Amino acid sequence: MLTKRARKLALGRLRPGRRPSLHGGWPIPRAVDRDHADNRLDASTPAQAAALLARAAALTQQREFREAEKLVRLILERHPRHPAALVELGRIAYASGNQRAATDCLRNAIVVEPNNARLHNELGCMLIGLGERAQAFRCLLRAREINPDDPDILSNVGSFHLGEGQVSEAVAAYRRALEIDPDHFKARLNLETALKKAVAPWHFPMMNDTSRNSLYAEAIRRVVPGRTVLDIGTGAGLLAMMAARAGARWVTSCEQAPWIAAKAKEVIAANGLSERIKLVAKHSTNLRIGQDLEERAEVLVAEIFGTSVINELVLPTVTHAHAQLLQPAQGSSRAPRAPAPIWRPARRWRQIFSSVGRRISR
Ligand SMILES: C[S@@+](CC[C@H](N)C(=O)[O-])C[C@H]1O[C@@H](n2cnc3c(N)ncnc32)[C@H](O)[C@@H]1O
Prior knowledge:
Serine Threonine Protein Phosphatase 5, Tetratricopeptide repeat, mainly alpha, Rossmann fold, binds S-adenosylmethionine, 54% helix, 16 helices, 2 domains
């Protein structure tokens, strides 16, 4: 059995502060003061093994891998299941460029300490580096299962999701990590990256496009008063708030991106309109009458035109809304139809659709 002190010494470098990183590879152990290391090459007692391990770590750091490995193997001869020595051997392998051997060492360490979350976490990071993503994810999930409140692990889970393009899951994992440790640098940095992916940069010029906004405001003022409104794709809540202010009987708004919907909720509350706008964080095709909308709406308000006009799937969305979410058309349907050619400059199309926006209602 290792003493508490020896364990601390040996396993200490797997602790936070020297975090495993999906970006930075294997954590580099802190330099060990040779004066404090045991100079005898004897690993009989746990304390001696720990001292040897400290020396090995220092040597690894100095990239003297052969010497480092010699010391670690001395320990393993004496204690073949010494988890920290197995980890150190993995570090040496990793630092010498042999990632496959490094994962084997970690697996051996996990056999000895199956409930060591950090080992699973590090193995997960390493497998990501090797492109074995499915297995890596299993390791990260196991690490999180063992220690659900470890911000390093949560951050790595987030980065895994981000790598898979699962932005919502990534944002949730980073946020959870930051709840636990608000100073977790990597989680914060990665959250910013994820949010940049989540909220496309065109949102900002779009929100500041005053001619677009005023055309929508005018259309809404003309059509909405006294009517019930469905706003598809609320973004920051702009059109929903225009509709509420224009005197809609009720406004139900939906937004497919949960993190955008959460912000819209804040914006709507800050404008004192929470009582008048019901915001549902769902794609419009998942809205249900009697559940999300009390009844079919009379007016559809939507600005879901991408830069190539129909790439935000406006046509199927509006078609679905007509069929499932809106009251039957009175007179002619005025939902926009795709004009051709669609390759004209996006700005021009925005203007066209902004003016069509006057007629989006029915
Ligand atoms: C171009 S932005 C417009 C935002 C806001 N309506 C405005 O005019 O400022 C479109 C937004 O609609 C969301 N969206 C697009 N199609 C959607 C759909 N069918 N259901 C729910 N949200 C949708 C997108 O996630 C995006 O946030």
